[in-house]
Amino acid sequence: MKTNRAGLRLSMVPYSLWILLFVIAPIGLIVYYSFFNLSGDFTLDNYKNFFTSVYLKLTVSSFWYAFLITFFSLLISYPTAYFLTKLKHKQLWLLLIIIPSWINLLLKTYAFIGLMGLYGPVNALLETVGIGKQQILFTDFSFVFVSVYIFIPFMILPIFNALDKLNPALIDASRDLGANAWTTFRRVIWPLTLNGVKSGIQVVFIPALSLFMITRLIAGNKVITLGTAIEQQFLVTQNWGMGSTIAVFLILFMVIILLLTTANERGMAGSGKKR
């Protein structure tokens, strides 16, 4: 027993070092710099400034766009994942959907700039059908559209895994008891795959809060998020203190979202055990 415990503790050393160096230390530095102004003096003004109307509007805007991106990603991903589970070579089709996520994000962004530009194929098609050229780039629509495209594979994967593990006998039992397709989905399929949906929401909503490269290249800085504000504070105004303060609140928002979804999952698991 002592040997097993010693081996377990030894195996935890690399993991602990990784967490310390690449999670705790960077967060500690961000918190540290958040208490300094441009002159390098200790101050709490950065935290006071965050609660002004400018940054509060920025936070609301970030949550709104993250919600839109997550909503449309879920709207597309759930039926897609359900359809994939019914295919014969479902793992192959899933791989084909995931492969685009391996391509560099910057390359995909520039590809959409070419597609949606005034002289791109999308506008050429619109001109052919008589609609005429449209300013698609540098709009809210283009930002949400490209973001949804990028995040869809990350939403599909956990939902697909949840649907694929679903016991078909439960669906058959629901139909045998007289439930129609909508009732079966609402009472059986959706509740049993909810954890997969929550995992998908986590991996989409949280990164969507901190997007900055897509806002600059696709939205033309017409869409400002917390990630864009952090980039501007660090690289443009060189105000590391304010940039760190925004990053601290962004981390807090992420932790709250994770805790809320994890707490719901634990609550469901606990109620299941009681039953």
Short overview:
With 275 residues, the chain is mostly helical. It has 13 helices and no strands. It starts with a helix and ends with a helix.
Describe the structure.
- This is ABC transporter permease.
- It is a multi-pass membrane protein.
- InterPro entries: MetI-like, MetI-like_sf.
- This protein is 77% helix and 0% strand.
- The chain starts with a helix and ends with a helix.
- Helix 1 packs across helix 13, helix 3 packs across helix 7 (140-164) and helix 3 runs antiparallel to helix 10 (194-209).
- The longest helix is centred in the C-terminal third of the chain and has 35 residues, at 240-274.
- With 275 residues, the chain is mostly helical.
- The chain has one domain: MetI-like (MetI-like fold, Orthogonal Bundle).
- It has helices at 2-33, 45-50, 53-85, 90-98, 105-116, 121-128, 140-164, 168-176, 181-192, 194-209, 213-217, 226-235, 240-274.
- It contains 13 helices and no strands.
